[in-house]
């Protein structure tokens, strides 16, 4: 069973660049997308209702901003979309979908940049991380299988971005952001890509759209699938699909044993 996550940088725009063809041919059973940037009724019908998939979308209150979507071969047993904090829930960043015993969390974590690219949203970003962790902690402790996937907007280690020295003061690689991701891992979550590719270098999931940097592979690894200890025995592989175009991000995937849901 393949589970994929992709920040599509606007689902309407991505649909014009081949998203539907990718979805139908990716062999994925569950796909979470982030940065949908549209209300459900604005999404083209062939993407809103693709053959063979159940869909669910969450939009931000602010038009053209944030938003997440879920495509799945099987309809989830239930989907939760709120953390109970108004300022977080207004931004449409979360889906917690249950498939049998497996929880799949599709999340678009906030960027720490303010309007002036001044790191002013870092406290908001960290508070969001902590609120989601608190929501998942009981299941984590109880050994439930949980996968948290999405755009985390944080590169964890220097190996996870092409130019760490130049970005030490940039949101996405600030010490306090990296420390928060460290906290998730210390408490049991596993970075699935690093688990299967511990020595991999130059493996990124996001590239600036300026200066042709994707062709030069000057990127950041900020998209993850984290697995709880209860989920990790079912995870058989993880990868980054660098060759998939259509967004400034590329998809990340895990292959999971089907009995994770049973």
From TrEMBL:
<feature type="domain" description="Endonuclease/exonuclease/phosphatase">
    <location>
        <begin position="4"/>
        <end position="249"/>
    </location>
</feature>
<feature type="binding site">
    <location>
        <position position="153"/>
    </location>
    <ligand>
        <name>Mg(2+)</name>
    </ligand>
</feature>
<dbReference type="InterPro" id="IPR036691">
    <property type="entry name" value="Endo/exonu/phosph_ase_sf"/>
</dbReference>
<dbReference type="Pfam" id="PF03372">
    <property type="entry name" value="Exo_endo_phos"/>
</dbReference>
<protein>
    <submittedName>
        <fullName>Exodeoxyribonuclease III</fullName>
    </submittedName>
</protein>
<feature type="site" description="Transition state stabilizer">
    <location>
        <position position="153"/>
    </location>
</feature>
<dbReference type="GO" id="GO:0008311">
    <property type="term" value="F:double-stranded DNA 3'-5' DNA exonuclease activity"/>
</dbReference>
<feature type="binding site">
    <location>
        <position position="35"/>
    </location>
    <ligand>
        <name>Mg(2+)</name>
    </ligand>
</feature>
<dbReference type="GO" id="GO:0003677">
    <property type="term" value="F:DNA binding"/>
</dbReference>
<feature type="binding site">
    <location>
        <position position="151"/>
    </location>
    <ligand>
        <name>Mg(2+)</name>
    </ligand>
</feature>
<keyword id="KW-0479">Metal-binding</keyword>
<dbReference type="GO" id="GO:0003906">
    <property type="term" value="F:DNA-(apurinic or apyrimidinic site) endonuclease activity"/>
</dbReference>
<feature type="active site">
    <location>
        <position position="108"/>
    </location>
</feature>
<feature type="binding site">
    <location>
        <position position="248"/>
    </location>
    <ligand>
        <name>Mg(2+)</name>
    </ligand>
</feature>
<dbReference type="InterPro" id="IPR020848">
    <property type="entry name" value="AP_endonuclease_F1_CS"/>
</dbReference>
<feature type="active site" description="Proton acceptor">
    <location>
        <position position="249"/>
    </location>
</feature>
<comment type="similarity">
    <text>Belongs to the DNA repair enzymes AP/ExoA family.</text>
</comment>
<dbReference type="InterPro" id="IPR005135">
    <property type="entry name" value="Endo/exonuclease/phosphatase"/>
</dbReference>
<keyword id="KW-0464">Manganese</keyword>
<dbReference type="GO" id="GO:0046872">
    <property type="term" value="F:metal ion binding"/>
</dbReference>
<feature type="site" description="Interaction with DNA substrate">
    <location>
        <position position="249"/>
    </location>
</feature>
<keyword id="KW-0378">Hydrolase</keyword>
<feature type="site" description="Important for catalytic activity">
    <location>
        <position position="223"/>
    </location>
</feature>
<dbReference type="InterPro" id="IPR004808">
    <property type="entry name" value="AP_endonuc_1"/>
</dbReference>
<dbReference type="GO" id="GO:0008081">
    <property type="term" value="F:phosphoric diester hydrolase activity"/>
</dbReference>
<feature type="binding site">
    <location>
        <position position="7"/>
    </location>
    <ligand>
        <name>Mg(2+)</name>
    </ligand>
</feature>
<feature type="active site" description="Proton donor/acceptor">
    <location>
        <position position="151"/>
    </location>
</feature>
<feature type="binding site">
    <location>
        <position position="249"/>
    </location>
    <ligand>
        <name>Mg(2+)</name>
    </ligand>
</feature>
<dbReference type="GO" id="GO:0006284">
    <property type="term" value="P:base-excision repair"/>
</dbReference>
<keyword id="KW-0460">Magnesium</keyword>
